[in-house]
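Hello,

Following up on my earlier ticket. Below are the two sequence lines again, exactly as submitted.
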Amino acid sequence: MPVLEFRDVHLHFERRSTRPAVLGGVDFRVDRGEIVTILGPSGCGKTSLLRIAAGFLTATSGQVLFKGDVVKGPSAQRVLVFQQPGLYPWLSLRKNVAFGYRLQHRQVDWRRIDEMLELVGLGDHHDAAPYELSGGQQQRAALARALLMQPKLLLMDEPFGALDALTRQRMQELLLRLREQLDLTVVFITHDVEEAILLGDRVLTMGASPGHFLLEQQVALPRPRNKAITLTPAFQALRGEALEALGRLTPSDSGQWPVVPQGDQDPESVEAVG
Amino acid sequence: MRQILRFVLPSARVLAALAGAIGIWGLLSLHHVFPSYAVPSPSAVWKAFLYTWRHGYLNETMPQDLLASLTRVTVGFLGAVVVGVPLGLAMAESRIVHSIVDPFLQLGRPVPPLAYIPLFVVWFGLGEFPKDLLIAVGTLPVIVITVIGGVRKVPQLRYEVAKSLGANRRQLFTRVTLPSVLPDVFTAMRVGIGVAWGTLVAAELIAASVGLGWLVEQAANQLQTAIVMATIIVIGLTGYAMELLIRIGEYFAVPWRGRV
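Thanks for your patience. The regenerated structure is below:
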């Protein structure tokens, strides 16, 4: 049984009389142990899709199943990690990580919390206040807080999108490492083509108005992965395919992927489709 | 300790501003720019203060007046906090409570506390209770409104994070809303303590025979301007001291204020 399944999911915004369609018939499934990345420009409905999976939004029509049951609201079984860390400033780092666990349990085994902090690379900051940490450290703590729930499904909404490029790379490597160490099933949303391929077992590329899938790619790159894999021809081929689906690149007559023109063009603007 | 001193000790700039103001005041009175019954000299005010402190004016000494007023302000203010904070939380959480209470709050807000005096005298007589109540009634709206505003501006992300981790409605309130509005409760108290002192003079028009507001009123009737000014300064300093106390409490209760 898939962990998550969308069957012909439509979403319309109710608030305007025109009822613009946000999602127009989305089908996909996520199996246990997979990382599925959803790639798309901003406004394509990918965040709405994730919020439906998390239970914060209800689909206008279609079925959303979590382990075979209809999703009826948020649950600690499928935790959402947001773009902003959302740590609570009145709690120490350790207590922030324990926040979700303590909603259900009176007793906390603080050694487990410390192990989790160790795992995400925050071993030295147990008693720090969140606002004393950098953005990357805060996002590590938010990830630790979600992982402590041992969710059956981890939903990540551009979790590294607000971080600088170097910190983002470290976070990507952290997630790749955690996936080797823990039993993770992840839906990861991004507008960064390279990030989508680097992290994903499968990449679903989305188009807008209404949101729909343009392309599904199996990422048959070996694991464990690290950033170096982005330099391989196999990776570049996947990237070209995704960019083409997004209409950002057209193949040359020879059928080979052309080199992105250098000069006045900023490579960032080609890479990020947001 | 050092952090507390940071609040209490005035900076050199503040001391300079105060010294400058007293200096100008002294020059004005020295050259008789205004008649001395209108602007008595700083030394005359100081003497009036010492005399009233030791010997009193119309029976009561200044410490007795201070104690009486301090008690009234404290009781009225704490009453407003004890009622106002939960009421504000209830109004922010429940539409029903809000629609029942809000009309009265909005009607009562523009009414100056002085206007309630005749009613309170008829209902509650001339004792301490109507005075405390008047201060509480004057202070209540600002506390309620500040607390409601605090609940309304809790970032949505804080709620969504908690919901995603499985929080129920009660937990959202106790673990997200309450700690989130704590800074606003302190803001409400800081604004409220000023309003409470402002209501005091009105409260002490109710058949008082002791109190700083009463003293101002009596001394003014006798054109004892120096005593009036001395009392005004005592009210100002006492009110400021109470605000400092709240700020020190805030510093320890809300260390994240201004940093998130």
